[in-house]
Amino acid sequence: MAASRPQSDDENGKVPRTARGRQTLRKLLDAAAKEFGEKGFHEASISGITRRAGTALGSFYTYFDSKDMIFRALVQDMSRQVAQHAGKAVEGQSGAFAIERSALHAFLDFARENREIYRIIDEAEFADPASFREHYETTAARILERLKRGEASGEIREGMAEPHAWALMGMNVFLGLRYSIWSEGEDSAEIADMANDMLRRGIAKD
Amino acid sequence: MAASRPQSDDENGKVPRTARGRQTLRKLLDAAAKEFGEKGFHEASISGITRRAGTALGSFYTYFDSKDMIFRALVQDMSRQVAQHAGKAVEGQSGAFAIERSALHAFLDFARENREIYRIIDEAEFADPASFREHYETTAARILERLKRGEASGEIREGMAEPHAWALMGMNVFLGLRYSIWSEGEDSAEIADMANDMLRRGIAKD
Description:
The structure is a homodimer.
Chain A: E1 9-10, E2 13-14, H1 19-43, H2 46-53, H3 57-63, H4 67-90, H5 96-113, H6 116-127, H7 129-152, H8 162-181, H9 188-201
Antiparallel strand pairs in A: 1-2
Helix pairs in contact in A: 1-2, 1-4, 1-6, 4-5, 4-6, 4-7, 5-7, 5-8, 5-9, 6-7, 7-8, 8-9
């Protein structure tokens, strides 16, 4: 039973032992996303988070010791959500470029629906540099794995290395900033198509 | 004569009327780059800036009204410096891809020598959102102009549009973050070559 599982603590907060606990933790993280997203790290407060979550202050301290700690947990939670969302979007897809296209398209739509994600991950550069760096290093590693699989399948040319993954990640992040955060007028499918074409064959005239 | 030129104020600080004034302003901006770069916006102070600049507090208030104001002037100064540096690097170069390669190579080296630039421009997302956005919009517009010239000269295929410029800018910014800020072990010329090849012909197997 869940309740009998030993409780393990880590530096990102305590792990809930019950379904109810997991629900409370989820509420706190969602409320933290809103609080940090709207107010920024410095202005955000623990009481603001618990008010939004509709939980008692004591519940907060069951899982986190400080504002810093829930911010760190939130950055890691968002990083995981981005990864899961992209993972789901490419599930069952075949073709290295179709996969990249779907991953970007899903990311653009995800960022539109979760606009606070840029503010929170970008602010981690200052409020929690280790998580900021880990987010991008993990994402780049995942992209490089995909490029290597495409290389193995013969769709992508040989020699894919870390700089290719960082370049592709940068493309995606900046397209998200421009077309998901700063404006939503553009068709995200079209943006994904253009970027995918650029990735596939570059921009030199044939 | 410089001294008789009417003094014009704008929201980014007063414009110095003399060569000596320009020198003081330059000292203040350079000191601000160090202060904000090391301490971040919240911890940085006006007295920290004047101490680093070796100027009196009164000199600061001759040019700026507040910490916010010098930060805004600094972001715009850095944005101009990045543009000038890239402009100088591509001067006299011909060939659309040679130009992009030189611009990236120069940017990677510039970021290595001015590491505070990422921290300051990235923190502008929170401390001065309008300047942050203006920096990237201006940079993207400049890149798009270059791509359009390449299109006109027949090196770049037709249809270059804003998303191509944002994608290319994102590539460059993330390569700078990874290979100029977080690590300097890699040869910046090699990184520029790889990125340029990716831009030119994409990554699909021929």
